[in-house]
Amino acid sequence: MSPDSSLVDSHGRVLRDLRVSLTDRCNFRCLYCLPETEAAQNFYRGHWANLPDSTPIVQQWVPRSHLLSFEEIERVVRLAVQLGIRKIRLTGGEPLLRHDIEKLVARIAAIPGIEDLAMTTNGFLFAEKARALRDAGLRRVSFSLDSLNRDNFRKITGRDGLESVLASIQLAQELGFEPVKVNAVVIRDINQHELESLAQFAREKNLSMRFIEFMPLDSARAWQKEMVVPGAEILRQLQAHFTLRPVANENPSSTSKRWAFADGRGEIGVIAPVSEPFCGHCNRIRLTADGKVRTCLFSVTEHDLRSQLRNGASDEALADWLRGVVWQKEARHHIGEPDFVSPPRSMSCIGG
Questions:
Q1: Which residue among 54, 108, 158, 209 is least enclosed by CB atoms within 10 Å?
Q2: Rounded Cα gap, residues 79 and 98, in angstroms
């Protein structure tokens, strides 16, 4: 494999970012992903989706034998880094549900050429593994936090876990993870009224708070455009309460537009894939927990890498296969367009 090998798609985008899902399972049941609780289903039926009472929303988990082993994940990451990938983010489902995850982190952290190794988690189990993950080589962590109100948190996530998540965020800062990012998916009529309190939380705790538009990736297939709070509206609402100054993005492939608070503590970002798509500079590729490569979060096609791995493909053959898959990366998603088709699997199965 030549040292200048890289993953380039047919639109000229060079891929540098690999998202690796470790499991499709999750211990939360968030409205925007796995709305399986009775309260979540009643919410959808009572608002926009009008789902019949006889329609259960039940997630079918991937058989454990289909999950990639740590050895397989390490091999794929190593190959991807040789092909120019520089950023690795471990996701789920909830990645901390994967047994001995710190051992995988150590294996990945030892691969030469990785410039950024991070994880996205809901934070509920983070305290149990935080120090081991830090010692293993994890340097950045992002938490999901959609509400600071205990009742609303439970309604959104299906879990009474707010205090655990808040404690995990504090612990991450104490252990030196930098930066600590917090993600909130904003849904109209659900948590839009908490934008100011979440931003104030970021300011007080010196965090990077990211507000994300609600995307059509829920297992209920209940997403509707009316539920989306556009990024511009999010920003206007925050600017009415805070003095914010723009922050230049050093990375041209960054998905967020960033603002700092005037006093210099913490920052907020807005990620608007629905109203302001950033497909033209997307440099990401995703590996699902069961070994499928997705070239776009909204792909309707998945490329079967697991079969390649388990049928004896050489590293050279895998590299050629990956280049061919990346070449097919979509020009853009089609959210809001007449021909848009939701991916067949929810965010939990795809990996965030």
A1: 54
A2: 22
Pairing of strands 267-271, 257-261: antiparallel
- Position 173, amino acid: Q
Going by the DSSP 8-state scheme, the letter that residue 123 receives in this structure is S
What is the Cα gyration radius of the chain?
Answer: 20
Cα 293 from Cα 21, distance rounded (Å): 10
Identify the CA nearest to 297 among candidates 345, 229, 249, 239: 345
Ranges 33-47, 61-75, 180-194: which has the least confidence: 33-47
- By C-alpha distance, which of 142, 213, 147 is closest to 182? 142
Name, in order, each residue with C-beta under 8 angstroms of 159's C-beta and a sequence gap of 6 or more.
Answer: 27, 28, 29, 124, 153
CA distances in angstroms from 218 to 10, 169, 305, 332, 345, listed in the order given:
30, 25, 25, 20, 8
What would the pLDDT profile of 277-332 be if each residue is shown by its tens digit? Answer: 667 788 999 999 999 999 988 777 899 999 999 999 999 999 999 999 999 988 87
On whether the CB atoms of residues 77 and 88 are closer than 8 A, the answer is yes
Q: Which residues contact 7 (CB under 8 A, 6 or more apart)?
A: 14, 15, 80, 83, 84, 85, 285, 322, 323, 326
Largest CA distance in the chain: 59
- Taking the C-alpha atoms of residue 216 and residue 343, their distance in angstroms, rounded to an integer, is 8
Contact 120, 144 (CB under 8 A): yes
Asked if residue 156 lies in contact with residue 146, where contact means CB atoms within 8 angstroms, the answer is: yes
Q: Tokens 């929303």 appear where?
A: 57
Give me the helices (H) in 96-194, please.
101-109, 126-136, 150-157, 162-174
d(CA 101, CA 74): 12
Closest listed residue to residue 119, CA positions, set 83, 172, 166? 172
Please say whether the beta carbons of 236 and 179 come within 8 A. no
* Cα gap 211→182, rounded to integer Å: 9
Describe the crossing of helices 38-46 and 150-157 by its angle, rounded to 10 degrees. 90
Question: What average pLDDT score do residues 245-260 get?
Answer: 85
